[in-house]
Amino acid sequence: AYKFIGVADKNQRVLLTIPRSFFISKTYENVHYRITRFSGTAENSPPQKTLVLLTRPGGVDQNSDPISHSELHQQLEADVAERGIDAERAKAGTWVTIVPYTYLRVRDRIELKWSTESIRHVVTQEQAESPASNPIKIFVSRTVIENAGSATKLPVMFQPIDEANNRPDENGPWSTPSYVDVDLDDSKLAE
């Protein structure tokens, strides 16, 4: 890619677009640019290493919902899915398991949303290579549960972002939500 720099471009950021067809998914070791001055003198920028991934975590979304991605799912603990969370259950926190998704990679950053609260997790090499024996489990603490508060059908969902900062299909940027009934009113607890 190239661009002629005019007087109006002086001291401005210059953006160049390289067609996607020029790339494959890999780490490029010597990424740099060259400036050729009007005098003919050429100057190279310092080389950089750049990871290019042409895939999106979760692959292609197969449904028409503008928020949820058909290929991204999480599982709640069985008792939480069945009975929800009361004040007593909240004290122990809960685990959310991320179901392995297409293009799961080491160093994917997962943002789990528990209603308005966020929890972040970075995928380990073991989780990426053997997700069946090393499941991605994210702990939702009592503090997070209490900060989100009580709600009927509190949404729980996640979004993976890969090492190249690719997000899921823009037609479904978040996992299909799971819903939890949360009632933190401890006056309802049996004495």
- Coarse morphology: elongated
**Overall helicity:** 10-25%
Strand order within the widest beta sheet: 7-14-12-9-10
Low-confidence stretches: none
> Which structural category fits the helices and strands?
mainly beta
Count of alpha and pi helical runs: 4
Distance between the termini: 72 Å
Largest sheet: 5 strands, mixed
Strand content: 25-35%
SSE string: EEEEEEHEHEEEHEHEEE
Radius of gyration from the CA trace? 23 Å
Please tally the β strands and state the result. 14
Mean pLDDT: 93
Question: Describe it for me?
Answer:
There is one protein chain. The longest helix is centred in the last third of the chain and has 7 residues, at 142-148. The protein has 4 helices and 14 strands. Strand 2 and strand 3 (42-44) form a beta hairpin. Helices cover 12% and strands 34% of the residues. Strands 7-14-12-9-10 form a 5-stranded mixed beta sheet. By secondary structure, it is mainly beta.
From the structure above, extract its key features.
4 helices; 3-stranded antiparallel beta sheet; mainly beta; 5-stranded mixed beta sheet; elongated; 191 residues; single chain; 14 strands
Question: What is this structure's SSE topology?
Answer:
Layout: E1 26-31, E2 34-36, E3 42-44, E4 48-52, E5 68-69, E6 74-76, H1 78-83, E7 85-86, H2 87-90, E8 94-98, E9 109-114, E10 117-122, H3 125-129, E11 136-140, H4 142-148, E12 151-161, E13 174-175, E14 178-183
Short recap of the structure:
The chain is mostly beta strands.
